[in-house]
Amino acid sequence: MNKKFPYPIKRIGIIGGGQLAKMSAQAAKQMGFYVTVLEPTPKCPAAHIADEQIVGSLYDAEKIRRLANVSDVLTYDVEHIDTETLKNLHQEGYSIYPSPKVLGIIQDKLKQKQVLAQHGVPVPRFEAIDNLTAEILAKTHFPIVQKARKGGYDGKGVVVLKSPTDDVLQTPSMLEEYIDFSKELAIIIVRSPTGETTCYPVVEMVFDDKTNICDIVAAPAQIDPAIAEKARQVALHAIEALAGVGVFGVEMFLTRDGQILVNEIAPRPHNSGHYTIEACLTSQFEQLIRVISGLPLGKSDLLKPAAMLNLLGEAGYTGDPLIEGLPAALAIPGLSFHWYDKMTTRPFRKMGHITILDDSLDRAITSIQDIKNILKIKAQKTI
Fold first, then answer.
1. C-alpha distances out from residue 308 to 10, 195, 303, 335, Å
2. Domain membership of residue 40 as a residue range
C-alpha cells in the first residue's frame, strides 16, 4: 500500500467487524484513513466500508498480530477479545486504545466494580459468587441481580432473581443489589491520551422488558439539570479512575432518592450514543477516530433533541432480512435510517436503528412509538 496520508496515524485496525466497527469505519473513511477489520464472519457489516478484512477469530493471536502489523493503531468494537495478545503487543510498543489494561478490567464485571468502588465511584452493593448454590440462595434477600463476570452482552449474562427457585447462571458471577431506579441513564465520555475530555449529553435509556435490550434512547434525558451535572461528574470520575483513553459508554441508575450509581461501562462507542451521528456536532464515532489518531477532540454539543430506536429482528423470523414499512417510516420528518448490513436476521438481533430529530423531544418520542408499529425486520425466507 503506497497511499500517502496527511495525518500522523495512517492505518487503523479494528478488532471486530459489527455495526460499531462499521460506523467507526465510516467516520474514518470520511477523514481519509485506511481501515482494516478483523472479524470471523466474511462480508461482516464493517467489511462493506473498510478497505480490507482479515477473516479470523477475535481470539486468534496470529490474526490479531497480522492486523497489528498492517495498522498504525488498534481499537476494537467489542470487549470479548484476546486481551493477553493485546497486552503483549502493547508491551512491544503497538498503539492500542483503550489500553489492554483497561479492557482487562472492564471485561470482568467484578473487577470493574471493584476498581470503581476502590476509587470512590458510587456503585450498587455487590459480591463475588463462584457457584450460586441453594444454600446461598436460601440466605439471599430477593430480588437480587446475578451477572456473569465475563461474556455478557445485550441482556445476556444478567438475570434478576426474584425467588430461590429461579434459574441461575451457572458461571463465575457476582450478585448485585437490585436497584429500584426511577430512570436508567447513560453518557458518552471521550478522553484523549493527554487527559483532554468531552462529555455528551446525559440520555435516558428505555429497555424492553422481554429482551432486556435497549429499546429507545432519549436525548437529552428529561431530568433536573443538577442531576444531569451530577451524572456527568460521576461518569467522568469513573473513566478517570480507570485511566481510560478512548470513547466510553457509562450506564447509570438514577435512584428514587436522587442518587447516581454506575451500572456498567463499555470501552467503545455505545448504543446509547448512536443519536450523536445526526444530533451532535461531532459523532461518538468521529471522536474515536480523533482520539486514536492524535487529533483534537470535536465539540459534543447537541444540535437538536433526538430519540433513537433500535431495530431488532422480529420474533419468529430467521433468515435473509426483509425490511417492512420503510417507505412509510422515511416519510416521517427528521428521521434517519441506519441499516447494519447483517446477512441474517434472527429474533431480537440488532439489525439497525433509526434516529428522529425534532425541536420537541416529546414529539420525537411519539414518532418513535409510531415507527414501532410501522417498521418491522422480518425474513424473506425463514430458516
1. 33, 30, 15, 10
2. 11-96
